[in-house]
Amino acid sequence: MANEVNLNRLAVFVALVRAGSFTAAAEQLGLTKAMVSQHLAKLERELGVTLLLRSTRRMSLTEAGISFHIDCMRLLADAEAAIERVGGNRDTPSGTLRITTSTDYGMAVVAPALASFCQLHPQVQVDLVIGDRINDLIAERFDLAIRVGWLRDSSMHAARLGSFRQLAVAAPAYLSEHGTPRRPEDLAAHGWIAMSVLATPLRWTFVSSGGKRRSVRMRQVAQANNAAAVRAMVLAGAGVAVLPDYLAEEDIRSGRLMALLAQYRLPEGGIHAVYPGKQPPAKVRSFIDHLREQLARN
Q1: Predicted TM-score of the model (pTM)
Q2: Please, what are the domains in the chain?
Q3: β-sheet bridge partners, residue 147
Q4: Is 55 helix (H, G, I), strand (E, B) or coil?
Q5: Cα separations in angstroms, 180 against 183, 206, 236, 260
Q6: pLDDT tens digits for 80-117?
Q7: Among candidate residues 266, 201, 256, 198, the one with its CA nearest the CA of residue 232
């Protein structure tokens, strides 16, 4: 029977009881008196019971009508509360923000940004999962992924947050022993620490200020599947590598690493927020905006 009942008629029934007459209910609902009467008649037919007894001067609820009215009031109150909660989630950041990103970017950028975000939005709890595997956002119930590099084809929605530069770097002690490369071609004679997860970890293309492209194949001495591990080996003097600016710039400023071939550019990578669904909740939208602001300041 429940599948046959038009639930919209419940609101009409409650409004009719509250108003006390068909005329008053029609005015409150913006309907005609005949339409209110039709709604009640159809509801009684769908339920198979009489809810309301009426004469030319008055109307009164039956025993079934009294019980049904109490249940309808509760149902409508629950529905209004649910709508209010959904609206609150839409406009106010709250709940748990479950987010995934890569290990190196998560430690260097996302975790500090989440810390300041939580201070601004104390109603949000954070669940950060870092790793170098591409997670299934829907199957693993993630609200958001921050992905660095070049996006794969996906059915997910993505917002570009910014970009990062790639820098060829080496430790001063290594350069003191092996010499400083002056041209891209010089790198072929140096020991190269490769990022194994890249499509072509040993071939890099450098672009001069005039737009001239120079591709070089490197000689590998070590590899790692994580940029933070590559950085550690470079800092230890194991060789030359390419690192993203968010990992290398502090080391360059402090003198722990030297930037090489500054007159040349390497391909820039993108930073994207990836999320399921067309309308992400407020907690997701707010963190995307917050991270974009943090990146713009750096």
Answers
A1: 0.65
A2: 2-91 (1.10.10.10), 95-164+270-297 (3.40.190.10), 166-267 (3.40.190.290)
A3: 272
A4: coil
A5: 9, 16, 17, 8
A6: 878 777 665 567 888 899 999 998 899 999 999 999 99
A7: 256
